[in-house]
Design a protein that fits this description.
Blueprint (H helix, E strand, L loop, with lengths): L5 H20 L4 H13 L3 H7 E2 L22 E2 L5 H14 L2 H24 L12 E6 L7 E8 L2 E8 L2 E3 L3 E5 L16 H12 L3 H7 E3 L22 E2 L5 H15 L4 H13 L6 E5 L7 E7 L2 E8 L11 E7 L7 H10 L1 H6 L1
Parallel strand pairs: 1-3, 8-10
Antiparallel strand pairs: 2-3, 3-4, 4-5, 5-6, 5-7, 7-13, 9-10, 10-11, 11-12, 12-13
Helix pairs in contact: 2-4, 6-8
Length: about 350
């Protein structure tokens, strides 16, 4: 066998280094997430710690809602109950899992709720508060200090993050993010829009379609009143409908990928790329883009649906109205068959020696 040339040796070294870099790049920051969760729990009083902790299989893990606090009872520890120091630890837990983009969206939605609170107080000064930064709850599922599998949840109006850690792997779905109003029409923050990118990127992709593509993409001329796979409805969509990505041109595929990236990159860089790998591994051509709502100035909706991803977006009339400005966004980001890390947990159960000894 001939010895490798210098150029070949360099190429091999570069290839190996790149492979090692890629493997390293795609490791989720599980240690940092564990440390943040443990610090949060240790920073709570014994009473609040007991209130915050649940078993991994507790029904509360799947009990979340986008409704205001007066319409849906939540468990865990609310920001209202936390001291400033405890709130700081709660924010560090969010930052351990979210990207700067995702963290700013999350806290932006919470701040938007504070603005809603002030508006509601002006209209109904004596009513029980429905909105506000205080009315978001954190729950920890399992014990991050010692369990291989554990998770955390942030739940409140227009915001539900569900994080599951299984060994060195992380699931971040389902996730719900919404904005009301989508664009603030007046006041100090006039023009502020927390979820502008999700809105504009979806409209840009739809606008790029030709007539033949639109005929396949449009699933209804009227948008649904809400996302289909909202709370408790994760299994409502079985078969992708609309326009397959295989029928998009190169520029349109870039628009589709940019739209998917907007949801994926709400999470820490490595977590985001692991999520994207899961989505693309099943094949980009199997992903469908669907649209509903075609009348100017009326509600509209889009969906991205493939074997390992469901993304839904709708921009509708404000609650309780059937006319006026379209200014109320709901979004959901799910993984069919693996919400709450179900597939990861099943795999861990089958492969873990500890669990095999129990069988």
């Amino acid at each position: 066998m001939k010895p490798l040339s210098l150029a070949a040796c360099v190429l091999v070294c570069i290839t190996v280094a790149h492979a090692q870099e890629t493997e390293e790049k795609h490791k989720a920051p599980v240690t940092e997430m564990r440390q943040s969760a443990v610090a949060f729990l240790e920073g709570l009083s014994p009473e609040l710690r007991k209130q915050a902790m649940f078993s991994l299989d507790d029904k509360e893990r799947r009990a979340w809602s986008n409704l205001p606090a007066t319409s849906f009872k939540r468990e865990g520890v609310s920001f209202k109950e936390m001291s400033p120091e405890q709130r700081t630890l709660a924010h560090q837990l969010l930052q351990s899992t979210l990207s700067s983009q995702g963290y700013l969206k999350t806290t932006g939605i919470m701040h938007l709720d504070e603005i809603l609170k002030s508006l509601a107080e002006q209209r109904r000064p004596n009513n029980t508060p429905m909105f506000g930064h205080d009315l978001y709850w954190i729950g920890i599922f399992g014990d991050p200090a010692k369990d291989d599998s554990w998770g955390w949840q942030l739940d409140g109006h227009h915001l539900a993050l569900n994080i599951t850690v299984v060994g060195d792997e992380v699931s971040v779905r389902p996730a719900f993010m919404g904005s009301d109003p989508a664009r603030l029409p007046e006041g100090t923050y006039s023009g502020w829009m927390v979820q502008n990118a999700e809105d504009e990127k979806g409209k840009r992709l739809f606008a790029s379609l030709n007539d033949k593509q639109r005929a396949k993409a449009i699933i209804d001329t009227v948008a649904p009143r809400d996302v289909i796979t909202g709370p408790t409805r994760g299994d409502q969509l079985k078969t992708p409908t609309g326009l397959p990505a295989s029928e998009l041109n190169a520029a349109q595929r870039r628009l589709l990928m940019s739209l998917i990236d907007e949801y994926v990159h709400n999470y820490e860089h490595n977590i985001a790329h692991l999520q994207l790998d899961r989505i693309l591994k099943s094949g980009l051509d199997k992903i469908h883009f669907a649209w509903a709502g075609t009348a100017e100035g009326k509600p509209y909706y889009y969906r991205i649906h493939g074997p390992t991803v469901i993304i839904e977006f709708d921009n509708h009339f404000p609650p309780g109205r059937n006319s006026g400005p379209v200014n109320h966004i709901h979004t959901v980001f799910r993984e069919p068959g693996n919400d709450y890390g179900d597939d990861l947990l099943k795999k861990h159960l089958l492969e873990s020696p500890h669990h095999q000894n129990e069988r």
